Amino acid sequence: MGRPEPPPARPQRRRITTAGAVFTILLLALLCYTRYSEKLLSVVPTIMTQDTQPQFHASLTKPTLLASLPPSALPKPHGGPKSPRLIIIGDVHGQLSALDALLAKVGYSGARGDVVIFTGDMVNKGPDSGGVVDRAVEMGAYSVRGNHEDRVLRAWDEMQAKGSMDTDSETETETDVAEEAEGDVETEKKKHKHKHKHHKGKKEARKTAKSLTSAQRSWLAARPVILRVGAVSPYYGDVVVVHGGLVPGIPLEKQDPQVVMNIRTLITPSSSTSFSPESLVSDNDSLDSSADSFSHSHLKPSEGREGHPWSKVWNALEKEKQKKNSKKGGRHGTPEPPTTVVYGHDAKTGLSVRRYAFGIDSNCARGGELTALVFEPTSASAAMSNPSDTNTNINTNKDEDEDDSELAAARHGIKHRLVSVSCRAQRIGGRHV
């Protein structure tokens, strides 16, 4: 008799069992992924509410012109001291310690729901541009693009295009040298000084661009040039935040972004010896800055100091508009609201407080001050008091009729005040910044 044969193997059943186990694992993984994805997608819109558009759609060289603040971010009239406030901060220029000191002095509270807006130029010149951007992101703050953000982002785009991260790569060309050899001595001295300043500015912008992370650059690139805040109260009307300024008579949607980021003055025809809003607007004009019929093509925006401060022109025209509204009762019997602009950029002038224009660049980059304009609700039962003495020593360029402005504003449930802290000039590379 031979040996009994062993029972036959059953590989088929083993394969079926293994396949079933794998299928079960995959099915469980798919269910978990589906549930997680649903939760994640529900969170994403909340994360993106601070941006007018997804950051990955932002352009380094073609900024978004106009965005609007959500109505829920506006302070509530007569809400009292526990109600959220709107805090607009001037040019920080990389001075993180000054920013933190200002936030502490103003009593910023994320838990209360305070909303922060920057007037641009958060970066450059100072020692910690990246830190300032991070702080803004932490607070869920809003900002507009300033001329320095624009320079930094364009510098990065140029460095990427050339494939060079060398911040000292720019040199004079033969054409530059030839141009300097022409003309009179004084003219060439001015040209050389201007060109030196330009090259120095580009070098600084490249260094700042290189110091920022990809996420920080993307956040800056997503900032609009104009931020329409909305109707804060009947006293202020529609509030708009920009970096440099606006040209009167041009709708927000049609403003030139480079002008908005860089303007300081408006140049009138050489025959004009003095400025008068009446000379710009006829009796038939509505003075509505959004009307196409109201245009001042003879007013040339300038980055320099010649001409009239754009804010003075804007303020005078808004006052004139309100006078006409009070006489005519506005369109269809409804008075047209004023437009108040909050801006930075003009450090040389410093604080400039007008009825319908607040300039809050107080030269922090050069050791001056960092300033915030705070819109805060009043208490319904609170008696009207004197304007806040938080900064009684601040030297402001103020309209003559502004002494009782906070009292008048408070009657509508929202008042404003200025808060400032000192900035210490920092030294970078052996020079003051």
Automatic annotation (TrEMBL):
Residues 270-296 have a biased composition (Low complexity). Residues 85-318 form the Calcineurin-like phosphoesterase domain. Residues 381-396 have a biased composition (Polar residues). Residues 162-211, 270-344, 381-401 are annotated as: Disordered. Residues 190-209 have a biased composition (Basic residues). Residues 167-185 have a biased composition (Acidic residues). PANTHER family: METALLOPHOSPHOESTERASE, ZINC-DEPENDENT ENDOPOLYPHOSPHATASE. This is Calcineurin-like phosphoesterase domain-containing protein. Residues 300-309 have a biased composition (Basic and acidic residues). GO terms for biological process: polyphosphate catabolic process. GO terms for cellular component: cytoplasm. One of its GO terms (molecular function) is phosphatase activity.
